[in-house]
Amino acid sequence: MSATATTPSRQPLFSGLWIALVTPFKDGAVDYPALAALTTRLRAQGVSGFVACGSTGEAAALDKAEQLQVLETVLQAAQGLPVVMGVSGYHQGQVLEQVQALARYPVAGLLVSAPHYIRPSQEGLLHWFRTLADASAVPLLVYDIPYRTGATLSTETLQALAAHPRIQAIKDCGGNPAKTQALIADGRLQVLAGEDAQIFHTLALGGAGAISASAHWQTPRFVELMALLRAGDLGEARRVWQALLPWIEVCFAEPNPAPLKAVLAHAGEMNNELRAPMMAASEALGQRLQAQAGLSPR
Ligand SMILES: O=C(O)C1=N[C@H](C(=O)O)C[C@H](O)C1
């Protein structure tokens, strides 16, 4: 299909607070009941939607069957809240197959990163995202995360991608405030903060929302922050943000999602397990995490 075929409308589909869900493990296998319970808890706490199989979900360590079962579990527990599915890789044929296979799931969108490792030109990146958007049944969110993929999307490339009717949002981990601001001013892509430490700034600049890992915990405060920013109450929003910052900082003091999983395990929501080569958080960090999470030591 070309960019002229049937198109979804440009609704602000992806606004608000989205949780990039962790994938719980138990004795090496995916713990689907824990994932369902986590999704149910977060839904009740007022989040806007979920991302399954993002970086926080350790998607790179899940096989395709596990990824689909994770998605099914989240869709079921989300009970109508929108769910976005993460898609990544660097073999275009295989990623295309994945996009086509996802057409039978009621997902709100696909979160697609640039192909990692191979570092294509801007023209190659345009080709990658347009090809996948042409093949997709649902909107694409561009996952701009150069420090993980090795590929930097320029502002011009992102603006060119915004002309595709299925490319509707960006998860912005680009680390370039000028690019963030230009995309918000352009207005065609919904800009979501993809770095937790950038949530306040992105929303204050006029961004649509955030895809967050640290909001697994202290969720109501993140929800409150978003509401205050949406209402333009900067003074109160600043107060809530200042209180959240030490928590956000400790969540990324070791590779994500290890710190988060340590807290969720301490709270009894899952095992403190990651798939190698990701490692559980260190004991020293564990104590800082418990203090920031307001959990008493065991
Ligand atoms: O999985 C995600 O989506 C997120 N990933 C970022 C990361 O790369 O670690 C962090 C962000 O909070 C959400």
Give an overview of the whole structure.
The record marks 55, 117 as: Part of a proton relay during catalysis. Catalyzes the condensation of (S)-aspartate-beta-semialdehyde [(S)-ASA] and pyruvate to 4-hydroxy-tetrahydrodipicolinate (HTPA). The chain starts with 15 loop residues before the first strand and ends in a 5-residue tail after the last helix. Residues 1-9 have low confidence and may be disordered. The protein has one domain (16-231): TIM Barrel. The strands form 2 sheets. Strands 1-4-5-6-7-8-9-10 form an 8-stranded parallel beta barrel, surrounded by 7 helices. Strands 2-3 form a two-stranded antiparallel ribbon. It contains 12 helices and 10 strands. 44% of the residues lie in helices and 14% in strands. It binds ligand LZUJQKHR. The ligand O=C(O)C1=N[C@H](C(=O)O)C[C@H](O)C1 is lined by residues 20, 51, 54-56, 145, 194, 196, 211-213, 256. Ligand LZUJQKHR is lined by residues 20, 51, 54-56, 145, 194, 196, 211-213, 256.
CATH class: Alpha Beta
- Let me know the average pLDDT: 95
The name of the CATH superfamily reads Aldolase class I
Q: What integer value in Å does the Rg equal?
A: 18 Å
Could you spell the SSE succession in H and E letters? EEEHEHEHEHEHHEHEHEHHHH
The coarse overall form would be globular
Question: Tally the helices: what do you get?
Answer: 12
Q: Considering DSSP H and I runs of 4 or more, what fraction of the residues is helical? A: 40-55%
Q: Ligands bound here?
A: the ligand O=C(O)C1=N[C@H](C(=O)O)C[C@H](O)C1
Strand coverage percent: 5-15%
Biggest sheet: strands, sense, closure?
A: 8 strands, parallel, barrel
CATH architecture: Alpha-Beta Barrel
Low-confidence stretches: 1-9
